[in-house]
UniProtKB/TrEMBL annotation:
The keyword Transferase applies. Keywords: Magnesium, Metal-binding, Transferase. Residues 36-73 are annotated as: Disordered. Residues 62-130 form the RL domain. GO terms for molecular function: metal ion binding; poly(A) RNA polymerase activity. Its cofactor is Mg(2+); Mn(2+). This is Poly(A) RNA polymerase, mitochondrial. SUPFAM superfamilies: Nucleotidyltransferase, PAP/OAS1 substrate-binding domain. Residues 53-73 have a biased composition (Basic and acidic residues).
Length: 574
């Protein structure tokens, strides 16, 4: 069924590519504006797997989304296309292998297409007509993948049709964001705008699941029947465009599979091969997968094996998708944490908007970093926002213990001896009666943590109240499932202090704006935009107010906060 004039090459890791991890590529791909073609009709009408609509607040169960997306990814291929291509001919060619459900193009140092077939068999049919490139100077290692290179023979002449794939250039995203924020009607509108602009798009989510599925193909060479599952911000509904892709190699289902069938006298050799500890087993598995990705993984570059970390991992850049990937193994608890966060994000539309803003605020002030270190992580920040929302009156989010009481037999989940049970159907959780605005919540978040007794209290979303710190780390946030662990153990006193100082200053700016509301100064960033400026301390409005010494400013701030808190609590109690 090979079409004349079109040749698809199975993509191989080229030696020349390996040394360069192209950072800008990640940025480009991550931007919504780099998607260059309209979606297929079916896709437009069916909406996204998570939400069923353009509003990306989760509406389906986490497990349902995972299953749907995974199955969709298995019917999907990634194609590196020539820059000039006729979309119509391209689709016509592909549909010789079976109906195409949806497709989109994106640009990432070249033009790529993500094509979802209706049936899995179409992928095999397409693979059967691909060939392995012969480079003359280098030897090719054939690897059957779903990542192809499209070579046109002869190259198509430019026709009017080809202009149908237009690249919508992405303007500088932070500049655009500032413009949007400054044009917003209210602080609430600003928070929702930020969420809309930075949340993962439908295409970006699809590409994340596809990338995991492509990595699974490589890992399956060693462990047939394994699954590579995404977790973390790619799936917990708090992912910002450009965030890393956390994935883990799940070998549990292979074991389940063999337990069902293990009626005979034979045990597979790999299962009886003993190593001194679980950790060493993990390191060995990740070591071979790392080697495999490095040598044979199409599009995988800059592979690093970080096996001595607390949680051993393989880090690499998936060049075609532009994602920075972290592959771990046996990470079911992290997947469960992702599901819990997903549920919290689904319960109230204010949650995701607030988390996004706090994450962006922290990034803008270098409180978080993509490099591991003594900084606070996005995961910790998200847990802090959840805790804060549990502390409102009435609470906006329920405690984890309460979610556990709503669980039924099917929700029961014990992982490595840890009770990870909670209700998974969020329709069974009663919505909160709290009607506070995002503006108020943002201000109160900064106030709350600007004055939190970090020296003696621990943050605990299981019980939804502060507890005495069980150890002396500057910041103690209880791990929701492995309750004896602190998820922010890495945070130093100076980083915590920086967080507190910035939280206080941000609360102060918002309070000052409240007071100045009758005489707003035009052309000045306001509300969330003012808080996101690279340095709050350098902002013009603050510089004016900074004439007083710091201690006096903080004293004034605390006083103004105290008086307005009394006003607010009186107002909410009315
Ligand atoms: P970004 O990648 O920064 O956007 O956020 P993320 O939520 O994906 O965080 P990260 O990549 O650092 O970690 C991925 C996931 O691993 C998190 O969402 C958590 O589920 C889990 N995780 C991260 N840090 C910890 C930790 O200290 N303890 C535990 N138990 N899980 C963690
Ligand atoms: Mg992550």
């Amino acid at each position: 069924m090979a079409a004349r004039g079109l040749g698809l090459l199975t993509s191989l890791p080229l030696r020349a590519q390996r040394s360069q991890v192209q950072r800008p590529l990640r940025r480009l791909l991550s931007c919504p504006g780099t998607v260059v073609a309209p979606l297929g009709k079916e896709e437009q009408s069916s909406g996204s797997a998570e939400t069923g609509s353009e509003d990306r607040t989760p509406k389906k169960r986490f497990s349902e989304v995972q299953k749907e997306r995974r199955e969709q990814a298995q019917r999907t291929v990634l194609i590196h296309c020539p820059n000039k291509i006729s979309e119509k001919k391209f689709l016509k060619y592909l549909s010789q292998h079976g109906p195409v459900n949806s497709h989109f193009f994106y640009e990432s140092f070249g033009l790529y297409a993500v094509v979802e077939f209706s049936q899995k068999e179409s992928v095999a049919s397409l693979q059967n007509v691909t060939r392995t490139p012969s480079l003359g100077t280098e030897a090719a290692i054939p690897f059957r993948s779903r990542y192809f290179n499209l070579k046109l023979k002869p190259p198509l002449n430019q026709t009017s049709e080809q202009s149908s794939i237009q690249c919508r250039n992405q303007s500088s995203s932070s500049k655009k964001l500032f413009e949007l924020l400054c044009c917003a009607e209210s602080v609430d509108d600003q928070l929702n705008t930020l969420l809309r602009e930075f949340q993962l798009t439908e295409e970006n989510s699809k590409l994340r699941y596809l990338t995991c599925s492509l990595i699974e193909d490589v890992a399956a060479a060693y462990f047939p029947g394994c699954t590579v599952r995404p977790f973390g911000s790619s799936v917990n509904s708090f992912g910002k465009l450009g965030c890393d892709l956390d994935m883990f190699l799940d070998l549990d289902e292979i074991e389940n599979f063999s337990t069902h069938k293990a009626s005979g006298n034979f045990l597979m050799e790999f299962q009886v091969k003993n190593v001194p500890s679980e950790r060493i087993a993990t390191q060995k598995i990740l070591s071979v997968i790392g080697e495999c990705l490095d040598h044979f993984g199409p599009g995988c570059v800059g592979v690093q094996k970080i096996l001595n970390a607390r949680c051993p991992l393989v880090r690499f850049s998936h060049q075609a998708s532009g994602f920075q990937c972290d592959l771990t193994t046996n990470n079911r608890i992290a997947l469960k944490s992702s599901e819990l966060l997903y549920i919290y994000g689904a319960l109230d539309s204010r949650v995701r908007a607030l988390v996004f803003s706090i994450r962006c605020w922290a990034r803008a002030h270098s409180l978080t970093s993509s490099i591991p270190g003594a900084w606070i992580t996005n995961f910790s920040l998200t847990v802090m926002v959840i805790f804060f929302l549990q502390r409102r009156s009435p609470p906006i989010l329920p405690t984890l213990d309460y979610l556990k009481t709503l669980a039924d037999a099917e929700d029961k989940c014990i992982i490595e001896g840890h009770n990870c049970t909670f209700v998974r159907d969020f329709n069974r959780i009663k919505p909160s009666g709290n009607t506070e605005t995002l503006e108020l919540l943002l201000k109160e978040f900064f106030e709350y943590f600007g004055n939190f007794a970090f020296n003696k209290n621990s943050i605990n979303i299981r019980q939804g109240r502060e507890q005495n710190k069980p150890e002396s780390s500057p910041l103690h946030i209880q791990n929701p499932f492995e309750t004896s662990l602190n998820i922010s153990k890495n945070v130093s006193q100076s980083q915590l202090q920086k967080f507190i100082d910035l939280a206080r200053e941000s609360a102060w700016i918002l309070h000052q704006e409240d007071r100045d509301r009758l005489s707003p100064s035009n052309n000045q960033p306001w509300g969330l935009a003012a808080l996101l400026l690279p340095s709050v301390a350098n902002s013009t409005s603050l510089a004016k107010k900074k004439k007083k010494p710091a201690s006096e400013r903080i004293k004034n701030l605390l006083e103004s906060i105290k008086s307005s808190s009394t006003e607010n609590s009186t107002a909410t109690n009315r």
